[in-house]
Fold each of these.
Amino acid sequence: MVGVWALVASVVVVAVVGITRHLRDGRVRTRDEEDVVELPEPVRALLDPTTPVTLVQLSTTFCAPCRHTRVVLADLAARTEGLRHVELDVTNLPDVVAGMGVRRAPTTVALDVRGTELLRVSGVPKRDALLTALRPFLPVPNG
Amino acid sequence: MPRDSPPRDSPVDPRGPRFSAWITTAVLAAVLLTGSWRLLAAQAVLFGLCAFVSLRLNPWGHLYRFAVQPRIRPTAEREEAAPLRFAQGVGFAFALVGTVGYATGLTALGVVATSAALVAALLNAALGLCLGCEVYLLLRRFTPVLARPQ
């Protein structure tokens, strides 16, 4: 009988996790804190002075959604003027993880040319919502 | 965990492990319902073989390749085998503790350990969520020893 309840409880736990993740994943967040964080050097090195917005995807080795995120962002960057996508494997870079305040892989951080954080997304980004949020920072398509 | 085991598995179609995880979920659910330490011991052996010898010893992987993979769309996606084997090692630890619990009459221990393994297997099967992935960053952050590349 105990086993039956344990089984039910386990399924409930998984269901709660699933619903929570579904609600939180891919949501675009702007950084709450006003304090300017010092960008860790490995991240700063990825910036490109000629591209208005760089999407830095922080990934780990142990990570299935990182692959899906890579596909979504690489495609988005290829089709969007002024946007580029780079991936950084932070599995062996705990300082970067701490410095960026990242708790989950993948976390994607949008940075401008000076390295100011514009927004961030945990999990697989929702393409349209991300593009809408980035629009103000991107060059207006001419024509 | 599998770091010092010499044979390296090649990357796998990520849908295979999720298929296996469904079967593992069913086995662990059956363990909870029956309280059979023998069944849990068999699952522990399977976890152990995958973690410490090779993922190719997983019978569900073969079932996936022969019965499921030909019927679904091919994918170029490949997942590294090392994290999967790490996860199997974690499963092995829980299954072992659970087996000891059930076999020695510490049923509560058996139930708790089996439930933990079941939650992990179901998270993997239903949500594609690898717990290692989510916990890994935290581990790296708070355990300086792990942070050093070997």
Note: Residues 51 and 88 of chain B are 5 Å apart (CA to CA).
Amino acid sequence: MFNGPTQYASDVDSIMFFIIAVSVGFLVIVTVAMIYFIFRYNKKRHPQARDVKESAILEVVWIAIPTILVLFMFYFGLQSFYGIREIPADASNIKVIGRMWQFSYAYPNGKKSDTLFLAKGKNYKLDLITTDVNHSFFIPAYRIKEDLSAGKTNYMVLKPAETGEFDIACSEYCGLNHSKMYSKLIVLEENQYNEWLNQGINKNTDSTKTTNAAEKK
Amino acid sequence: MNKSADASNYVSYLDYKGKHTGIWAWLLSTDHKRIGLMYLMGIIVFFTAGMTLGALLKTEMLTAGRTIMDPQTYNAVFTLHGIIMIFLVIIPGIPAAFGNFFLPIMIGAKDVSFPRLNLLSFWLYIIGGVLALSSLFLQGGPIDVGWSFYVPYAIRTNSNVSLALFAAFILGFSSILTGLNFVTTVHRLRAPGMTFFKMPLFIWALYSTAWIQVIATPVVGITIVLVILERMFGIGIFDPALGGDPILFQHLFWIYSHPAVYIMILPAMGVVSEIIPTFTKREIFGYKAIAYSSLSIAFIGYFVWAHHMFTSGMSDIARAVFSLFTFLVAIPSGVKVFNWVATMYKGSIDAKVPFLFVAMFIVLFSIGGLTGLVLGNLATDIHVHGTYFVVAHFHYVMFGGTVMILFAALHYWFPKMFGKMYNEKIAKFALVFIFIGFNTMYFTMFILGYQGMPRRYWDYLPEFHNLQFISAIGAFIMVTGFLILIFNLLHGLLKGPKAEQNPWGGVTLEWTVPSPPTIENFDEIPVIEHGPYHIYKEGQIK
């Protein structure tokens, strides 16, 4: 129903839609009933309150229906979430390193960058490490985040389905420039990606120079 | 004891002359009503301070980048806003102000069990409040860690974290002692004939809350002491650089702070269960269902804390278990809402100001509760965790829930507490402002959060500008509403007409004593034969 940049993002949007639809239903029932009662049983129209017998059936009904609905919500969420916790066998490992207040990335072949580059259609496992306080690695368009907890390594699995540029934000408060701790994810076609990945690796010294020059600008 | 109910002997607690005079007659008073009133003043002052800080945050969000303050100031302001609103307004809020004032009267007692301890609690509250605020002016600068004090940042920042933690520690004791006092009072001082099941529902709510205060607050006290030890002596408990575990801190913090949410909301639910019968002239529908749902909320509420930590790297099984319990805790709250609305069916509804605040509460609290489903769901929570969505959700529950009911209680019991009446038309006007401002401000934050706007951000991306701007405008509308509300009450206090003993036709014991009550509440301790709402069953009240 929804078209996100990953299959998982579309799933999250569908679950969100389901929860919101149910919620709006309940909210409308409660609000409309209340407003109707306030007018219909107003003191002027209805001067004498009537005693209403308590109804066990009614109580059971309005416990049972919400319980069934929330169990469905729980199940959908769990199923979808477990899907992104399984590490695919062919996933490449990339290290995400957070420090106050920037992210940097280390690729399996030794390459490093300040922008996360990934190839479309490939599986990735990101290892999340912080060198100081807690941060959180959040890709809003992918509907995904995981904390960089001090003293341990968390992970996140993803599979980009579209090329493009996406924002990465820190979403765990980490001090002065927390709100500046943005980074970018750039998804390339596989051949472009491989070209980028191997660029500078063979002639290592040159690439360090160019990165340094780029940073100075 | 003065046995005559003679009008000429009537001296209200406000005019009573005791051992001390002037300001000391208040500051050293052990009268539960005077202490309750002083708490109420303190809470309103701190709320105004917290709201001003909140308005400053929203002003900063009018534009991206710097509007009125730099990031360090912004971080300190949102931290103080959180600390003031949580520890000085919402947690003491209804129990300390209205609980102190009305608990003894509603169970037919002259005072709480330990009046001096009660005064000590009040002083601890004031000392804690002053310490928390003084970090603003001392060397090191105002704290910038957020009200949740997450380590390792709270260990490493140079700001006055130890002082603020010490303040929270003292406030915790104020809370524990009040809880102890209330539990003892309910057990020992009920009027003859008032069994537990003949107590008003507000007393039930205060009683349950008092137990949570006594049981859960020490956990946060110990956690605070551990953080202070770690900061001062470098003992490795939470900071991994010293060999500690930061996740342990999060667990300990939320083991208290999630049940604390029920310390905040249960008394409000108790007030709702008083106001609805008074203005519908009906016994609360599903008294037992409401009572059992309170118990299940309090019980299941202890097993949901780690939903605050879904992204912190817990095991996947732990995430599943806490997600399931979080969904289940939503059910009893839903049951309460259904029963409250059902109570209005075939009632005789007099939609006065306190009732309208309750009606507004039901809408706002429902939105807050239902968006909680999004946060209990693992897939959607991972996305909105740590964003404006969460901020909007807990403001709907805590502000739209607890604080709106604090306003409702203020308008409900105002004539009893002061013997004066406010202007009802202006109060309704203020209510409309607050409702419109509230939704404009916080509903936009749900959308911002889902679009990926992280919380505690001094700056934002250009695409968020329009909604941020609308949200800030909503905040200004709401502040206007609050100012109208307070000025109306102050005007009522000084110039308002005299209030009757029972202006709403309430049936609980506080409406059987004069407005304002005498120093000892009752000339003669009443003997209770029926539960308070029994009278509606017999159709004796028109």
Note: Confidence is low (pLDDT under 50) at residues 203-217 of chain A.
Amino acid sequence: MPRTLAEELASKQREISVAEFFERNRQILGFDNPLRALLTTVKEGVDNALDACEEARVLPDVLVEIAKAGPDRLQVTVTDNGPGILKREVPNVFGRLLYGSRFHANRQSRGQQGIGISAAVLYAGLTTARPAHVISKVREEEAAHVLDLLLDTQKNLPKVVADDLLLWDRESGTSISLVLKAKYQRGRQSPYEYLRGSAIVNPHARLVLVEPDGTRITYERASTEIPPVPKEVPPHPYGLELGELAYRLKLPGPKTLGEFLAKQFAGVSSRAASEIVGKAGLTGKEAPGSVQGERLEALLAAMHEVKLLPPSAESLSPIGPVLIKRGLRNVLGEVRPEFYAPPVSRPPKVRGGFPFLVEVGLVYGGGLPADQPIQLLRFANRVPLLFQQGACAITTAVQTLDWRRYGLEQKGGAGLPIGPALLLVHLASAKVPFTSEAKEAVAEDPEIDRELTLALQVAARHLKTHLARRNRRAFAQEKFDIILKILPKLATKTSDLVGKPVPDLTPVITRIMDVVNLEEKVEATPEGVRLDAEITNYTPRARVLELFVELPAELFPLGRFEPAPDGTDAELGRAWWTLEKLPPSGRTKVSATFPAKTELEASDPSWFVAGVDEGHLLGAEPLPGDWDVRLPRAVIEAAEAGLEAPPAGAEAEVDYDAAETSARSEDDE
Amino acid sequence: MPPKRARAAKTTSKPARTEPPEALKPTQRLAGEIYDQLDRGEIPRMRLPLRTKQNLQFQMREGVWRLGRALGTRSARKLDGALMLLRTFYLVDFINEMARDSKTSTLRELYYISEGWEEGKFHSEDESNLLIEDLEVLCERLREDFRLHPEENGASVIGDLTIKETNRKGVVKKFNCRDDVGDGGYALPFNVEKEKIEFVGTNAKFVIAIECGGMVDRLAENGFDEKHDAILLHLKGQPARSTRRFLKRINEELKLPVVVFTDGDPWSFRIFASVAYGAIKTAHISHYLATPQAEFLGVTASDIENYKLPSDKLSDQDVKALQAELTDPRFSTQEWRSEIELMLKNGKKAEQQSLAKYGLNYVTDHYLPEKLAEMGIES
């Protein structure tokens, strides 16, 4: 009897193993070409190493060696000083897809899905038929285990092909070595860039890369603080969706709805729980599983409506302003940027029931290329994102900001701005919404976008302030060049020619400058870090000035001021002085000394001066209007006495040398 | 109607090449002014006539364009101004030193001398040349009075013109610029004043000043100078001061008409303007350099059409140059306006050598005779 078509088809149906599925869909995991396969392998190895060290509270020391292993073949070895892996777990960790401890945890971690490193093992096996070579030692055992293993693509099970012991000269750690079809080159999407990015956001790690030609690149540790392991936290009701709530209600556990709300969610106190059930028209005594249909919707609406505690940041591991700056400085040191904006670390917000937060660092100037788009470094949970820049929500947020308002060029006020800047954007979350399994780009989301934009704006405002300051400095520099370098020579030359003594230049100098200038300097001295400000009255008349300094509040109490300030406000980080009367060309100085190694930047203190108007003030800002400060009488009187019209005529004249330039381009001879 | 030294007797043609102390007195005056300002506590400054096209004024009496009354200020308030003031006195110092040592210097040497002026060092030769011109204006002297001169650049003359030149060794040589010189013609020295060059005589009827060397060669090979009793003068692009001065002297002293034969493009119009009307950069001495009776022969915008000459499209820069000429007072005549507008409308320019389209003899047998007849130079 002939078989029916249905029977025939049924006979062909069988379970497709996960491994087999991924074998046919390599690109999903980032193994679609030899360049990318190498990067993905390095990335998974390094991420695992960093996560393992962090959990074990060890300062990570990660070595990545890439060596030639035949034509089109590279051997990649990633070695860490983590806690090591128990022998019985080794095959599962490296030889089985979707095996891991982090997938179900509601906290931030680098690897989430547990497919990464085993996918690399799989790829290596497929392209070179060589097994993964794993060495791992735990502190409690004398010797390290050495295992060679392959991944059985049919059964999604590891196959151990060799098993040995080794006396390893380290207390604990793991090393995995793979031979795969791959290609090495430096570039935007390379292991080199990946390690550089990782070094910036993991200043507590020491990372070493050995390239196939033997070049050794070392990123030394810039911090000895191990970031805290993010705690697991239950989801937060804000942003929770209906399906997710229904699913959670059905899970075994609490007997009543009230208990369910108070125990299974973050930010819900028992009082808030009663408020929620009240708003939803429920009693709180119901069995959680019984809440369905309209009652379910009412419950969710009430959960969104009631004011709750904000989500705890404990499930997140932000890098933090101090370490962002340190990480950037450690890696970009040789570029000598002129400005590190104070890094921005936004408070945590909730999206889809999970907390997230955004951090932004910005660096400007120095050796960064001025005529190209800025460098954008994207990170999710401390992992550099190197692919799919165009499809990433972080990129969109950067591109939609009008950077022209903040002093960078940008064609039409959209797109990546152009200028000598580098922008670091970090998104930390227990669940980062990636656009795909390859975890290369963050998906668009209105809440995340809002936070990104806010953080970027803060960083951009710092840049704008810096650029404005710099322009004023350049203007001041021009004047200083005139009075210090040119004027004295002009006086000597003309005096010689007419055979008379050189006249006193003070009146001319103050007329040319016509500013009160503040020059600040930060330097390390034997007594500590010293901040100096020198105020010079380069105006043609005497001045009584009030000087204010504003310091980061955490640094303020550490400073010893000289002379003693006439007043301070530690809470706001401010100190002020009424300066002695300064005649034309007169100068005076104030200083503050901080303990050695205090991290104080020249851009940290802000200086404000009262008693002279903005147009005649350099190196400091006029007193902000909202400070509501009562100035000493002497300052006010001196300022009023000096209210005189500027010398007439000078401004209306045509600048001969500026006009001449146009003639030069027109003509001839 | 010799336009000479009426009101501007002090600065005009070959003004007193006075003895050093006299020539350098004005520089002393400048130093004194700045010293007094410093002594009074004022920001040092100088006022100079603006050398811009907006400040060109036509001088009826001389028939040339000279500097108007608009003044600019060079002040130590600005870095550029302060630097130029400082350089001015380094320069004055250097000039005085040369006078003491009886030396002269080329413009290029001066540029290198400034290496020792610290902050006052020039960044380009343009900068040093401009400052020398400024000093000419301020002191009402010529750069030769300051013992500064350009390099010999050898613009050449071919034709029946007999001159006496006093050479470097002080020996007077007399020769004819057609019969006594090689194929390269007579190379003009930078000094073309009477004490150096004297005109003895000529049978030529006119002078034809030519932009490109290739065209000079063509006319010489075809014997144009002899057949048409012409003196050929090579302008070498924008003509040097000595070339313009020489043309003016021939025109005025030998009463020969001058025609200017250039490419047909916006830049050639400017060459003609600086020959006939005066250049912007040297507008302070236009009365000494410009030949107001010089006439433009071509190539004109209409020549390109009438003679169907091979042409190039005007570049963006060409168009900009033409538009700038429309606001240049020197080109404000009806004739020039329509010429410029026609070139803009057609969007085409042509080189003078494009006439070779019709053969090597076409320019001498057809084009020039036709144009000269049109202009009434030949019949």
Note: Chain A touches chain B through 38 residues (CB under 8 Å).
Amino acid sequence: MARRVGICAVAQTTYERDKWNQRFQGMALDVLEALRQQVDIKFSRHRPEVQGIDMTISVSDDIFDARTISNNAMTDVLGAHFGCEEKVAQEGIQALYYGLAAIQSGHNDMVLIMGHCKESQCASRNMVTHVAFDPFFTRPVGLDFCAAAGLQAQAYAAKSGITDAQLAKIVARCRKHAAQNPYTPGLEELTAEAVMASDMLADPIRALHARPVSDGAVGMVLAAEEIAVKICDKPIWITGVGNSMDHFFLGDRDLASNRALKEAAQRTYKRAGITDPKTAFDIIEISDQYAYQLPMWMEGLGMVDEGKAGQWIDDNGPDKLHVNMSGGMLAGNPLILGGLVRAAEAALQLRGEAGNNQVKNAKTALAHGVMGPAGQFHSVITLERN
Amino acid sequence: MKKNRNVGIIGVGQSVYSSHREEVNQPEMIHEAVAEALAHAGMTIDDIDCIVHGNMELFEMVHQPDCWHSLGIGSVGKETLRVTTGGTTGATICATADYLVASGLHDVVLAVGFEKLQEGHTTGGITNMADPLWARQLQTGALTGMTAAAVIEEFGEERAKKASMKYRIIMDKHAMKNKKAHRRLGLEFDQADDLMVNSPALVGELRMIHMCSQSDGACAVIFASEEKAKQFRKNPAWIKDHITVHREESFGCFGDEPFVLSHRYAAEKLFARNGIKNPRKEIDMFEMYDPSSWWGLDWLREFLLFDGDEHLKMVENDEITIDGDFPINPSGGVTASNPIGATALVRVAEAALQIMGEAGEHQVPKTVNQALASGFGGTLWTVLFLLTREAP
Amino acid sequence: MNTAKDDCFVVKGKLALPYQYFAGKTGSRFIISLRDEHKIRGLKCEKCGKVFVPPRSTCDICFENIADKWVDVANTGTVTGFTIIRYEEPHQPVKPPYVLGLVKLDGADTPIAHIVKGVALSKMAVGLKVKAVFAKKTTNSIMDIDHFQVVGDKPKFELGYSYEELEVGMSASFTKTISETDVYLFAGISGDFNPMHLNEEFAKLTPFGTRIAHGALPQSLIAPVLGMKLPGLGTVIPEITVKFRKPTYFGDTITAVGEVVEKIEKKKWVRMELRWTNQKDELVAEGSCLAIPPAAFLKK
């Protein structure tokens, strides 16, 4: 059994519509400074005599950043002077998966994770995700992640019977929690009626069912157990990880089946030794880019019985299971950071630092990230505190 | 370093490298490499636990390309990770695969690097690397004539130009032995004087003939835990150690501090922690990421920690040829084939093949016990791999 | 706007790099069939038996090479999923709102995403049948299928009874009063200006003592029965025989009746008995015919 890995520091910027007064390096620097308030950060630079960050994992997206090898721009901020810096270009939660492996391999003891994205930098995030499609058969018909989500939402609604009113309730609840979350300022509370009155975007997805465009950065420090216990009071242990990839072409999949998420969840539970996911977690943070995804992913995670999510919403299930107490991704996180922010918010809960959204005595948590058209790729991570 | 468990390379696959591969699309080209790696390791895709993918999005303008590429990689239903670090990407995904196996998370990991440079605009893509505010107007792709000027300054024009051209011709002679290499020009040593004058000049004495190619291609390498590796192959190439050394974007930010190349820093640290005192003697061959023959020549000094002209002598005395004492790039190296996201992976893959003794026509005629492979990218970044024939 | 923006520059930029994507042999063959033959082709994996559209050279379920396992699929299919795109982006092929559907072509196992037209947005539903409409000009891409057009559940014409549906004993009729105008028009149509039909003074000299209609005029009243009622639209009559029993006078109301008397299994034809009667129930004419009912397949 490889050694345990703990999250020793967590920091993030606010997530706002357009941080026009900051470059992405500036956002990352703010996060790094905040992390330094929590733990002493030195960069080891392969000097065995220095205990410090052995490896930095940045998370960014070349196309959102409009820069080839966008981590070039991050090396100055992330202390890469003779240090190791590597970029996870997938969903940000995968930086934790990678950091865990990097430490458990024995090759590194401390890892700094830093993700950034400015969705506001591009004319439209749909234009970015449009080029995720192959140039021959799916790009020409105008697909992007929003259109793909529309197809999935229709398939899921047909299968589960989830209603417009239930989806509206999810958004209203998200806004209620987001209003209490200092990292998601500027989001108004909304009534379910207002949500149901908003325009359709890609039926059955309404404009208010989609997460707002946002800019932000999030960072963490991971350390091997023997160091983690020395440098911080409340390390949050990574207990399980898992991910999976589904077919690329939307028609090759059963869009309502949650195939990749089920596989990701089962792998995670197996590694974490969890047999009953319904009762295993005090906190659940999932990446709901659109309202329909909250109930759908909950079914995929095995937390809600298949086809029962509508009733579960009616019965205030999300409150009972403490799902997305932060507001969730629906409150606005950039595309590639959603899962990493979920893990950060889960860690804050386990540290008892979640402010007005704090759940008492939270000890265990699950965080989830999703990437690709209509959830082609899912990644799950489980956390616990001592 | 106390590595959790040993990791070996047990399968290598490469597509043919070419200026353009219009008969295959991206996933199909990657599939060629994956299928060959699986066959080389004697396994099927079902034996793979996790797939690591790397390239640079802006070279082909495909967002999250691993999603589309799942059609050719075989990643459906598997764990995946996508890591990119510019030119070093190929070597970085080797480090990633190493971590994933060494940690115990996975037993068998497939690393896939690729680029289809003909589909995009490489120089434009590289120019986009630069800061839009401070540097983009000044960026000229990957052309750096400064090294040529520095070598000429230090060793005199005639000796420097001869050595770099000889290096170039040796690389081409190696490429002629590698059927998969992209540029196989059939150069002879007696053409050196002519090329030094007549090859189109790019920047100063950096000429077209010195520069790396711009290739389409994919490479796939299979990494396995010691137990699994021994199950599938009697001669795995073992990962002894590796190191990643990056530098900041603003080179000048440390003022007058003497400029140390990341290659030298990486080599010093890696050799020190592995007890290598004389790399020139203790290492049997080197697959170097040499984007131009000027850099290949100059960097040899940095990697082997020389201070004088030993590196020039190595070239002048034919020590770096395939049958020399210290063969460099028997595959032909980067001046022959350069599908950027795969290039550094090819270095590790070729070094592994040399250790296995399975490099075919470009196998060095001696036992390779310890090999070095380097990756280069970004703003002078280095990833350096040490591979061995005996399990560490 | 916040005045602080004055001291924070926003630098405008554009990622405007040229790209060319190689479709590869397999993808190109698909597009060439589409362009040159208006034929949609799929690739079949012999291991899992699935027929894939869009094409790919590897079955990503079985990891088998399927690059040359081409099979034809139909230009028709069924909608298996859809969304209505209401937001506007430069990369969209048509102006929103439009339907983006997943269309499973008949003969394929994997639906493809494409534009669906020909249905009110509020009536869009899973299960609708669609047919590929090919683009007038080729773009050498999947857009050589311009869109998929919804085809109605009901055929445009209500075809008559098929052979299978016809039973011995089924009958139908048509009734019409024969006027002076009808006779004069019929004379014009047939060129038969015989004075026994048109000249009352001449007709007084005939055995009937007054003008009578042309014999073929009441006889023709069986045509609407056979062609539009029984068997109905789509019927072909290869043979008809008639015996005239009584004259038809101006003002007579004639009823033509056809009745199925025999199903000829070998030919899938029916034999019908025909009768014409007047308002006094007198038999005006009688006969029989062979009828080829509309083929069953036309009704699908």
Note: The CA atoms of residues 34 and 306 of chain B lie 38 Å apart.
